[in-house]
UniProtKB/TrEMBL annotation:
Gene Ontology molecular function terms on file: ubiquitin protein ligase activity; zinc ion binding
Location within or outside the cell: Cytoplasm, Cytosol; Mitochondrion
Keywords: Autophagy, Cytoplasm, Metal-binding, Mitochondrion, Phosphoprotein, Repeat, Transferase, Ubl conjugation, Ubl conjugation pathway, Zinc, Zinc-finger
InterPro entries registered for this protein in UniProt: BRcat_RBR_parkin (IPR047534), E3_UB_ligase_RBR (IPR031127), IBR_dom (IPR002867), Parkin (IPR003977), Parkin-like_IBR (IPR054694), Parkin_Znf-RING (IPR041565), Rcat_RBR_parkin (IPR047536), RING-HC_RBR_parkin (IPR047535)
Family, as annotated: Belongs to the RBR family. Parkin subfamily.
Top-level taxonomy: Eukaryota, Metazoa, Ecdysozoa, Arthropoda, Chelicerata
Active site: C394
GO cellular component: cytosol; mitochondrion
Enzyme Commission no: 2.3.2.31
Descriptive protein name: E3 ubiquitin-protein ligase parkin
Record bears the keyword Cytoplasm: yes
Enzyme class: transferase
Length: 427
């Protein structure tokens, strides 16, 4: 009988307790007579688990010289720890588990890319993050009788023992089992085994995030959460065409954007949903679109440049609000009126910090609710911009301003015509 676990044929003298099995893990026993190809026993050198090897390596591709240097550094860091520390310390990957809804220790597993069973024996162990995050990097031989797969597929799972064994562990085989147990790995989060202090609070925490900058700046998870929330609330995340909506190193290092955006789940579910919404909005804006200014809507609108009036008159497909692209107010025929002309000034930081009585008068919940309700039930006359309220009935509006008297459609916000009469005269 040949025992296969985590892509390796285990030697006969190896104890299973040294394999970091954990809860809800599975090993495969294959009849030695059915082994397709004589597998090469991969050495368990330096008594390092696969978790220890990967978490100590850089996220970037490394050459052999750099890899040897990193391995020497890892051996040095292990020698300065005591035997008591070694027995108490566990080296794990970190994943964000959707079932646990929090950051958890993770386990690396490997299956055949074709049949999704864990009976594959890899040709070599992964040496760096790219080996497990990039498809088709490592080959092997699948020992399942009905499979001829030769590509290893790595995935991560939550190491907690609280998951339902029928749904979350890898006792069942196939693609469904892999998808159910899969968790998103957060490669920038590491155990702080060398005692680096946080760049923000200067405390030495057990678990830290290492920014992907050249200096590898370290920040504790609490400060990282505060840093991201501050950037998010100020809407100062960066939009990158390849990476998406992300942040740089807190020190401001160049080329340090966080690529795996699931790290931002550490902000909490509500903040992460806000992050996703802001990211989608920035994507629309960067593509030349606009956001509907109607309160309670905010839908993203990509403009059709084939329409002759696409630069000025926009109709929201979600709430049907018609507005001017330039000033984001209700659509109008004449020139846009600036906020200054309307008596509205742009807020500034010093005005908010002053906390004067005048500012306090404008910061009342009920007043804001009233202004929002008025805006939802009124639209400006397309010609003179006089606010007009509709309380029901006909869609044919007549401007109440004596000098204007413009006849217009409440829906289209254009001059009243026969199409308006036929399509939406009332409603």
């Amino acid at each position: 009988v040949v025992i296969i676990f985590s892509g390796k044929e285990l030697p006969n003298d190896l104890r299973l307790s040294d394999c970091d099995l954990g809860h809800n893990s599975v090993i495969h026993a294959i009849n030695a007579l059915n082994i397709k190809t004589k597998t090469k026993l991969l050495p368990f050198s330096d008594q390092l688990t696969l978790n220890q090897k990967l978490t100590n390596l850089d996220m970037n591709d490394t050459n052999e010289e750099t890899r040897h240097e990193l391995e020497d550094r890892n051996r040095l860091s292990r020698r300065v720890t005591t035997d008591e520390d070694k027995s108490a310390q566990k080296y794990y990957f970190f994943v964000f588990c959707n079932s646990c809804e929090q950051l958890m220790n993770g386990k690396l597993r490997v299956v055949c890319d074709k049949c999704k069973n864990g009976t594959i024996v890899v040709d070599r162990e992964p040496r760096e993050w790219h080996d497990v995050l990039t498809p088709n990097r490592i080959t092997g031989v699948c020992q399942s009788q009905d499979c001829n797969g030769t590509i290893a597929q790595f995935y991560f799972k939550c190491a907690a023992n609280t998951h339902n064994s029928a749904a979350d562990d890898d006792r069942t085989t196939g693609a469904d089992a892999v998808d159910r147990s899969r968790a998103v790995v957060l490669p920038l989060i590491r155990h702080n085994c060398i005692g680096v202090s946080c760049l923000a609070c200067t405390d030495v925490k057990d678990t830290v995030l290492v920014f992907p900058c050249a200096a590898k700046h370290v920040i504790c998870l609490h400060c990282f959460r505060d840093y991201c929330l501050s950037k998010l609330n100020e809407r100062r995340f960066v939009t990158d065409p390849q990476i998406g909506y992300s942040v740089n190193c807190a020190v401001g290092c160049h080329e340090s954007l966080i690529r795996e955006t699931h790290h931002f789940k550490l902000m909490g579910q509500i903040a992460y949903e806000k992050y996703q919404r802001f990211g989608a909005e920035e994507c629309v804006l960067s593509a030349g679109g606009v956001l509907c200014p109607q309160p309670g809507c905010g839908a993203g609108i990509l403009l059709d440049e084939t329409e002759p009036e696409f630069c000025t008159r926009i109709t929201c497909s979600e709430c049907t609000f018609v507005f001017c692209r330039k000033c984001l107010q209700g659509y109008h025929v004449d020139d846009c009126v600036s906020d200054a002309d309307n008596g509205v000034s742009e807020p500034n930081t010093s005005a908010f910090q002053a906390m004067s009585a005048a500012n306090a008068d404008h910061s009342k919940w009920d007043d804001m609710m009233t202004r929002t309700a008025i805006r939802l039930s009124t639209k400006p006359c397309p010609k003179c911009r006089t606010p007009t309220e509709r309380s029901g009935g006909c869609m044919h509006m007549v401007c109440t301003r004596s000098q204007c008297g413009f006849n217009w459609c409440w829906i289209c916000q254009t001059e009243w015509n026969r199409d308006c009469m036929g399509n939406h005269w009332f409603g």
